[in-house]
Amino acid sequence: MIFRSAQFQNFRLLRDLRIDFSNDAERKLTVIRAENETGKTTLLTGLQWVLFGEEALPRPATSYRLHPVDWTGRESQIEIEGSLEFEHTYERPTRSGGWTRQTEVYLARRRAVEEVLGDQEWTRRGTELQLYRKTDAGWDRVPGDSQLELKQMLGSNFRELFFTDGDRALSFITSEMSLGDKRKLVQGAIRDMLGFGILKSARTHVERAISEIRSDVRGAGGEDELAVKAREISEVERRIEAAGAAQAEAEADAQRIAVEIDALDTKIEAVLRHGDREELLGQLKAARSAVEKTRAELDRARTEHSELFRRSPLGYAIAEAVVRSAQSHLERLSGEGRLPRSATPILRERLAIGRCICARELPEGSPERAAVQQMVAEQETRSLVDDRLTSLRYAAATAVRELEGGGSWRANLGRIVEQREQIEDRLQAAETEQKRLEAVVDALPDTDVALLRKTHRDFQRTREEALKRRHLSEEKTTQLKAERQRLDGEYQAMVRRSRAAARVRARLQAAEDVRSVLLGAYEAIERDEIPAVSRAMNRYFLDMIGGDPQHTIIQEAAVTENYDIVVYGPMRRILDPDTDLNGASRRALTLAFILALTEVSGVKAPNVIDTPLGMMSPQIKRAAVETAVEHSNQLVLLLTRSEIRDIEDLIDRYAGAAITLSSSAHYPKWLRNDPRREYFAALRCDCTHRQYCAVCERTGDAERSELLRRAS
Q1: Is 11 exposed, middle or buried (0-12, 13-18, 19+ CB in 10 A)?
Q2: Angle formed by the axes of helices 618-631 and 583-601, nearest 10°
């Protein structure tokens, strides 16, 4: 697919705008120069709306107004229209076994009507897509489902790969998504681009066929029980499908909102990045990091403090006086020879021999023998207590050593308490500094940071709701699948007992074999194509950032078998794209993934990218443009003047079309000449990246030596 031209009427700021794209195979770059708030993002959204409809609008689509915000016309009903003229080349097999290419021209036109009910109230109806084919006689309406026809031409319905908002270009690696969500987004992009939708449709068809085979048992000998069980299975499968759809919708909502949050973060940074605000932003970032690190340090100290009260030395410390007194007393007994008592066995032996250790005879009935026997009896009655006292002596000695040691419980307690007090003081100071900086930032003139932050919080709450819906749907799906497995087991057991068993088993086996083939195709495509996407992405990414594996920190980028986009540093250490890569490298990584996926999939469609070169150094900016031009089928870049700086010669070399968009709302602050419009609108002129005219001249253009004035 190649874009030829686009036209819009009453689509927000695009009241009456026509864009002509370069369709030159050698100079396939189109540059639309436009500053912030002049219609770039609106144009990107408008092109998606024409091709994909309501689902392409920011969420929730029902609250996204299409008509101009300052509409003051007499008509309360506003007709909104967008159209896109494009070429599409078909490849068809010939009778001789070869392939032939045929290019046709189409026009996609989407219309809607919005009725204004009040200052903040409106309704939308009549959104309709019509697809026309150009013939020698004019434009003929293409019969059938226009949306389906467009999807087949695009080869994918994953619009984020064809239309990229620079502020949202980090959706595949954004920190606002969990690891699982990012994996699903990458997996969805790969599967959609590689044609998994066809396999999924075929698998769904086979699943329905299996359900119908089960239901057909009713006519095979009056097997009513089988028919009832088949209906139960069909009902559970219907509920699984509904729960899966709800889960997918919730996942999509959460992903879209995460991208919006990431874009808001970028906008907040952009608003603050003017003059000394950049230094203030750096201070605020450092203050937040200090608060987080100090909080983590305090949490560790609290945990250590808590653990201290779970150790045995705590008891020794509490009863220190008693322990020391007992140990002293027991040591005294030991010094007196009263502990431990070990004479009893010797005395027994002497009684058996009949002679005392002093050599005196101990005959039966003698007073001497009676005295020794009395000593044995006394020692036996006290042996149990003596044993306990001996054990207690050793335990008391151990406790005293712990109390007197350098790592004693009291010493540790004092150290932990002092450490916690120091950390809490540092945390209070860090939080005070963070609040002070945030107050200064919020008070900056000409900024809507407070509003952006409120929107950010609202998005966070909405995303939490979406994640909750996804979790509930996921749980329901799991329960229903377990129920289906149980019913399948019962059904199979009934089939084995059925008179129609052979016929049913044969048909079921055939359908299940087809399902296995489709699952195998899934695995084979993923096994072979994911490494191809990974290799291409790594090549493009290193080209963009000027990476040399021998001399740079970034060694390689890859897509893993688990659908993670990862970056490797020295010694194969994984770098976190959210924290270890700068903004330029993160944008380059996402752009490299998009280019790699479109190349490997073989899908040939335009890449329309809004503000892709922000935060890039001149070297990376140039490499990114050259790589994107080389590996795109058609490239449309919407660039600000600052993005164009340092790549003027590349635009001279690659661009087959270049225009400029301005906004009447920028007069007189930034736009020099009065556009003489009573309403806000995007203004188009034919100025290239090296020109300015009475329509687009901005403050400072005349002083820039690289710009030439063009006669209007």
Answers
A1: buried
A2: 10
Angle at 269 between CA 64 and CA 29, to 5 degrees: 70
- Could you tell me which of 101, 235, 221, 83 has the C-alpha nearest to residue 503? 221
The two tokens of residue 663 are: 């906004």
Strand order, beta sheet including 635-639: 163-165, 607-610, 635-639, 29-34, 655-663, 682-685
Which are the contacts of 376, defined by CB distance < 8 A and separation ≥ 6?
344, 347, 348, 351
Q: Yes or no: say if 582 and 575 are a contact pair by the CB < 8 Å rule.
A: no
Hey, is 348 helix, strand or coil?
helix
What is the SS3 string spanning 424-486?
HHHHHHHHHHHHHHHHHHHCCCCCCHHHHHHHHHHHHHHHHHHHHHHHHHHHHHHHHHHHHHH
Q: Which two tokens stand for residue 437?
A: 């900086």
Partners of 8 in the β-ladder = 17, 82
As a whole number of Å, the end-to-end CA separation of the chain is 33
- Which one, of 481, 492, 489, lies nearest residue 217 by Cα? 492
Share of the chain above pLDDT 90, in %: 17
**pLDDT tens per residue across span 200-221:** 666 667 777 766 666 665 444 4
In this structure, the number of other CB atoms found within 10 A of the CB of residue 21 comes to 25
- Stretch 460-466: mean pLDDT, rounded? 82
Within 10 angstroms of residue 60's Cβ, the number of other Cβ atoms is 10
Domains of the chain, residue spans: 312-426
Amino acid type, 154: L
Which amino acid, 491?
Y
CA distance 565 to 182: 9
- Non-local (6+) Cβ contacts of 504 within 8 A are 213, 214, 217, 220, 226, 495, 498
Mean pLDDT of all residues in the chain? 78
Q: What is the pLDDT of residue 656?
A: 94
Q: What confidence category does residue 376 fall into, taking pLDDT thresholds of 50, 70 and 90? A: confident
Instruction: Identify any residues that bridge with 674 across adjacent strands, giving them in sequence order.
Output: none
The pLDDT, as a whole number, for residue 32 is: 95
**What does the pLDDT read at residue 638?**
93
Query: What is the rounded distance in angstroms from the CA atom of residue 125 to the CA atom of residue 128?
Result: 9
Contact assessment for residue 557 and residue 592, using Cβ atoms and an 8 Å cutoff: yes
Of the candidates 527, 600, 540, the one whose C-alpha atom is nearest the C-alpha of residue 194 is 600
Interstrand relation of 138-141 and 163-165 (parallel, antiparallel or unpaired)? unpaired
Question: How far, in Å, CA of 604 to CA of 583, rounded?
Answer: 28
- As given in the structure block, the two tokens for residue 359 are 């050599």
676 dihedral zone (left: phi>0; alpha: psi -120 to 50; beta): left
Q: Which residue has the tokens 């409106």?
A: 122
Of 225-239, 476-490, 653-667, the least confident:
225-239
Cα dihedral angle (241, 242, 246, 247), rounded to 10 degrees?
-30
Q: Provide the 8-state DSSP code for 143.
A: P
Q: Can you give the pLDDT at residue 685?
A: 94
R_g of the chain computed on alpha carbons:
40
Q: Is the pTM of this model over 0.90?
A: no
Q: Look up residue 340 and give its DSSP letter.
A: S
Candidates 19, 7, 21, 18; CA nearest to 634 is 21
Closest to 58 (Cα-Cα) out of 131, 160, 178: 160
Write the CB contacts of 207 (distance below 8 Å, at least 6 apart in sequence).
Answer: 237, 515
Closest CA to 141 of 103, 102, 112, 108: 108
Which pair of tokens denotes residue 685? 């002129």
pLDDT of residue 76: 76
Higher-confidence position of 366 and 248: 366
